Amino acid sequence: MKRALAIRLLALAALVGLLGAAAAPAQDQIRYFNRKTQKEDSVKATVTAETPGKITYQVGSGKPEDVAAVDILEIRYQAPRALNALEYRAPFAREDRALLEKGAKRVLLLKEALQGYQDILPKLAGARAHQRNTAFRATQVLAALAEADPNGAEAAVTELRKFIAEQGDGWQLVPATKSLVRMLEIKGDQADILAAYDDAARNPAVTPEVRREFGLLATRHLLRRGKAAEAAARLKTVREGVARDDPLLPRLEVYQAACALAAGRAEGVDRALQKVIGGDADNDVKALARNTLGDYFLARGDKEEAFWQYLWVDITYNQDREELARALYQLSRLYADVRKDTVRARECLERLADEKEFGGLELHKKALAERAAPGS
User: Fold this and answer.
1) Least confident window among 24-33, 168-177, 223-232
2) pLDDT for 126
3) pTM for the full model?
4) What domains sit in the chain, N to C, each tagged with a CATH number?
């Protein structure tokens, strides 16, 4: 009797909990990079405004808060009124599961997620933010499929360009443009990369901060292509109007040092880079600074010191795939030259050649060619 009563009470408590959860207001889930803590962070709130430069959100009746678009990792919006929650969330769940799988299972789940996004898109016509984000997620799945099969890069490029042209008025413009560049790299369309950055920067909804972000990405691309003079000219334009307290300044200073080094003007480069490394710049900027300092020491013939700079990037500042690729390529040589460790040197080359995150990068292609060379 007591046991039956206890079961009824537990069931009632569970029902009350479910009703309470149902009554609680649904919220958007925002994941972003917190520049103060240098770590991923998240918040459950209601997104109240979106632009290519930032989003504004509000927790309950609290004051509105902003997150820069370049720092947003993902937003999971609450289910719209036009669609039931299970149907809306199903493709997102499949995409999540795909990221935990490899090989054929991953591809299958990605294709199911893509179909799910395509199925719900027509039902989101009255929910602008949901429609834009769902279309964006579909392009990201296409890009992920192209990484598994480069033959899909053309379709991904087409859809990304369509998304940017038609729905580039939200925070997704920055990551969509970065995905487009990655697909162009996989296709080998280097000439179109600068155009992609410039087209995005001309978007009428873009803020000056985002325009400068695209300018710096274009500068990095030009430096990687050995076009130091063009990179310096681009950087000069970006620097105009940047205040001394602008968070973009440390990154800009590193690129300025890189342009000087590429032009053969090494005087003071090491001091400028050490200042950035010792400051409060974020980890991506420190990765860039460490790699550039490694290049500085290599130019001076100091392989020992260069080795330690690139190793810092591999071990600590490894979030940016381009900077990590750059460090691994140099370490694939310096482990053998400096540490006399050919095994670790080979491991760095193998990582650069095999890991899919480096797909499309010039250094990835270079690593594949070097590994395939006779006697390697």
Assistant:
1) 24-33
2) 87
3) 0.85
4) 13-78 (2.30.30), 82-206 (1.25.40.10)
DSSP H helical segments within 188-302, as ranges? 191-201, 208-224, 228-239, 249-262, 269-277, 283-299
| Tens digit of each residue's pLDDT (9 = 90 or more) over 59-96 | 999 999 999 998 999 999 999 988 999 999 999 999 99
Q: List the structure tokens of 242.
A: 């940047």
249 vs 360: CA distance, rounded Å: 29
| 321-357 residues labelled b (16+ CB within 10 A) or e (exposed) | bbbbbbbbbbbbbbbbebeeeeeebeebbebbbeeee
pLDDT of residue 19: 42
> Which among 354, 276, 363 has a CA at the least distance from the CA of 317?
276
143 CB contacts (<8 Å, ≥6 apart)? 156, 160, 179, 182, 183
Does 166 score more than 90 pLDDT? yes
Tell me: pLDDT of 7 over 90: no
C-beta of residue 183 within 8 angstroms of C-beta of residue 156:
yes
- Tell me the pLDDT band of 360, cut-offs 50, 70 and 90: confident
CA 33, 38, 42, 43 dihedral sign is negative
C-alpha–C-alpha distance, residues 152 and 146, integer Å: 5
- For the beta sheet containing 72-76, the strands, ordered from the edge strand earlier in sequence to the opposite edge, are 65-68, 54-58, 39-50, 28-34, 72-76
CA distances for 36 relative to 66, 252, 282, angstroms: 14, 19, 9
Contacts 24+ apart (CB under 8 A), 239-244: 241/208, 242/212
* 75 sits in which H/E element: strand 72-76
* pLDDT score, position 84: 92
CB atoms within 10 A of CB 160: 25
Q: If we measure between CA atoms, which residue out of 301, 298, 300 comes closest to residue 327?
A: 298
Write the DSSP assignment of 164-220 as a string of letters: HHHHTTSTTHHHHHHHHHHHHHHHT-THHHHHHHHHHHT-TT--HHHHHHHHHHHHH
In the block, residue with structure tokens 């080094």: 261
- Distance between CA atoms of 342 and 29, rounded to whole angstroms? 46
Beta bridge partners of 74: 31
